Amino acid sequence: MTPRAFIRRVVYQTEKLYQRARFASLSEPRGGWPILLSISFPKSGTHLLDQILLGFSKVTPFPFRLHSFYAEYEGESGRKRAPEQAIDWLDSLRPRDAASAHLFARPEAVDRVIKPRFVPYFIFRDPRDVVVSHVFYVTDMEARHIHHDHYQSLPDFNARLNVSILGRPDTETEFPDIASRFAPYLGWLDHPEVMKIHFEDLINDRAATLNRIADHFLARVPLQTPRERILDSLESSINPSRSPTFRSGKTGEWKKFFTPEHKKVFKEVAGELLVKLGYEKDGEW
After folding, report:
1. Taking the model in full, what pTM does it have?
2. Domain residue spans in the chain?
3. What is the dihedral of CA 234, 17, 14, 47, to 10 degrees?
4. What does the alpha-carbon distance between residue 188 and residue 106 come to, in Å, rounded to a whole number?
5. Alpha helices, H only, 183-247
6. Within 10 Å of residue 88's Cβ, how many Cβ atoms?
7. Residue 149 parent element (H or E)
8. Other beta carbons within 10 Å of 184
9. Pairing with 37, which of 93, 145, 212, 283 sits 20 to 30 Å away (CA)?
10. CATH number at 34-277
């Protein structure tokens, strides 16, 4: 463990103790305090959901920062982590932790997450907006990204968008097409224990979505706290300026960037995915 990681761990544990003392009058819920878990598909509102869930720290003894973040791929090397690493990470979490992950819905992970030990949420976004966001992120925002140099070498945005849709079969670093990238996450949609959140709903119908987020939490952790105070705590925790990758927070921006050729290619590789996720009824878009 690096000195920085050690200090962060000490600070986090100290804050957990402070929160426990601060809310000592709250009765422990039946089954004990759970773990708050934010699961996200990359470029789908990860930081937004994290901020909202950390808002529960204002009304319960959950921490006001994340315990840790887990990703199935290492950021700089692009190397895919072994399935055992995800399980070890899940097993390392403790009651009253709040954590975030780009986590595949492998059977072993699902088996853990759907247990009462967790209060899990899964956020995803229109994959067409995802690939547009991915281009901006890799090209302009993350110079250490494994594909940054390749994207910089491409002639224009259209060429980069094609890569974000189709992947890079020409490289040893795994980067499949957008439908194949989403496939390992689809299993989260099949379990009612995991609340599903469309990123678009947090932008276009935030009040209703925050109510659903609160309901999912309160089903596991009943509180006597006034509902208005809980919702205010979640809403006031949203701060786009604190997200290092937040760009516009808009929906449907793909319409500005997709050419007829992009639409054709996307329909070929991920048309069925759009229907499954509820973004289209068929291929006529």
Report:
1. 0.94
2. 34-277
3. -20
4. 9
5. 199-204, 206-220, 227-236
6. 11
7. helix 148-153
8. 15
9. 145
10. 3.40.50.300
